[in-house]
Amino acid sequence: MLELKFIRENQEIVRNSLLNRKVKVDLDVLLSADEKRRSLLTETEDLRAKRNLANDEISRLLKEKKDTKATIDSMKEISSRISALDAQIKTEEEIINRIIMTIPNVPHISIPVGDPTSNKTVRTWGEPPVFDFKPKTHFDLSRDLDIIDFACATKITGSNFVLFKGLGARLERALINFMLDLHTSKHGYTEIWPPLLVNRASMTGTGQLPKLEEDMYRLKEEDLFLIPTAEVPVTNIMRDEVLEEEKLPVYFAAYTACFRREAGSYGKDTKGLVRVHQFDKVEMVKFVKPESSYDELEKLLANAEKVLQLLGLPYRVVMLSTQDISFAAAKCYDIEAYSAGLNAWLEVSSCSNFESFQARRANIKFKTVNKQTNKPVTEYVHTLNGSGVALARTIIAIIENYQQKDGSILIPEVLRPYMDGRERIFHQK
User: Fold this and answer.
1) Helices (H), 230-269
2) How many contiguous H segments (helices) and E segments (strands) does the chain have?
3) 13 contacts: CB under 8 Å, gap ≥ 6
4) CB 341 within 8 A of CB 135
5) Rounded Cα–Cα distance for residues 356 and 89 (Å)
6) Domain boundaries, the chain
7) CB 259 within 8 A of CB 227
8) pTM exceeds 0.85
9) Sign, Cα dihedral of 153, 157, 162, 168
10) Which residues, 6+ apart, have CB-to-CB distance to 338 below 8 Å?
11) Is 172 in contact with 280 (CB distance < 8 Å)?
């Protein structure tokens, strides 16, 4: 969330942000409500001061045994007016809160302006595999090897769900354990195993609500949501907390299932694992000091890239444009892995810096010292998160890029210890 004072004092920046994001928000209504609220507050404060004087006057008159009726009547009128003003203030605050929650973060100056066609490829790593045969898609390979059963998942639940089986399930588990081990032992993250259901405050704190409520799975009676990403519960660990400066930065990594209703809504080919309603992901979340957050973003990106490098998967890093970054992000890199069967680059990770946007919504602060006054103060932390990485499309890249002429799949070397030393996946009879 943007600070109201920031919006008021930086109207041009906010208007340009909305323009560059191509988002419509009635900023004039917000600013008008803010101006009216501040005027009402001033009047209320003046009346409260008069009421306090009237109370003092009544006390004096009572001590002097003089008539207090006129003063009491005057105080009643003041109190009645204050009550009316309080109601008006509440109305204006409701308008402010409703609109301000729909204003996205201000994009960082370094990112491209425009729609997704303006996204900028920062770098590539590795070379797409070359085959002396026509490569199959993961959909065909998983069917031939009997490692993923899409039809059964549809029978159990519905379209765009997945059932891993046999060595397919083992490969999924191997990836999860490999990534958690890497991030916790090499990259300094503390492992978290959070709830998969969160409350409305948690979803609001990270910016999914109110904008994306229709894309979420919700339990109506309890008003709980299945998480779209571990970012939500993990970030909210620190909601309403004041952290010690010396304990920053804080790094968390978590494996969770993720749930999104919007799968298949983009008009693209969604056959197989490309876009599903439920998928596994290892998420990295950071709480850092503001002055280091962009250095931390580059480190976060490097942590996610390391996963793909160790898996031997070709990828490219893309800096997203103003119209392609998420609602809460100030800057975001996508990592896209190459998949040979589909002959496509598939997003497997998004690494974002939200600056103080989420921290303001979730009220996450840290204790520090004002350098000018040398007095203790509290400031909002900066939050970051990145997929480290999402498994469904990573599975696609592994299956398609490591396929062999005989129809088997070579298992990446770093995963073999997690699969009892197996080197290949063959059809299991």
Assistant:
1) 231-235
2) 12, 16
3) 106
4) yes
5) 27
6) 4-100, 116-425
7) yes
8) yes
9) negative
10) 126, 128, 313, 314, 315, 316, 344, 345, 346, 397, 401
11) yes
Partners of residue 365 on adjacent β-strands: 242, 380
What span, in angstroms and rounded, lies between the C-alpha atoms of 283 and 81? 53
pLDDT tens per residue across all 429 residues of the chain: 999 999 999 999 999 999 999 999 999 999 999 999 999 999 999 999 998 898 888 888 888 888 888 888 888 899 999 999 999 999 999 999 999 999 999 999 999 999 999 999 999 999 999 999 999 999 999 999 999 999 999 999 999 999 999 999 999 999 999 999 999 999 999 999 999 999 999 999 999 999 899 999 999 999 999 999 999 999 999 999 999 999 999 999 999 999 999 754 444 456 789 999 999 999 999 999 999 999 999 999 999 999 999 999 999 999 999 999 999 999 999 999 999 999 999 999 999 999 999 999 999 999 999 888 999 999 999 999 999 999 999 999 999 999 999 999 999 999 999 999 999 999 866
Closest residue by Cα to residue 234 from 255, 216, 262, 219: 255
Per residue, the 3-state secondary structure of 31-78, as one string, reads HHHHHHHHHHHHHHHHHHHHHHHHHHHHHHHHHCCCCCHHHHHHHHHH
Question: What is 116-425's CATH number?
Answer: 3.30.930.10
Reported as type and span, the H/E element at residue 412 is none
Closest CA to 157 of 280, 281, 278: 278
d(CA 139, CA 143): 6
4's tokens: 């109201």
Q: Report which secondary-structure segment, H or E, holds 335.
A: strand 331-339
Ramachandran angles phi, psi of 256, nearest 5°: -150, 160
Could you tell me the end-to-end alpha-carbon distance of the chain, in angstroms, rounded to an integer?
Answer: 55
Beta carbons of 335 and 356 less than 8 angstroms apart: no
Query: Tokens 């850092």 correspond to what residue?
Result: 288
User: What topology is assigned to 4-100 in CATH?
Assistant: Helix Hairpins (1.10.287)
Q: Which residue do the tokens 């009316």 mark?
A: 84
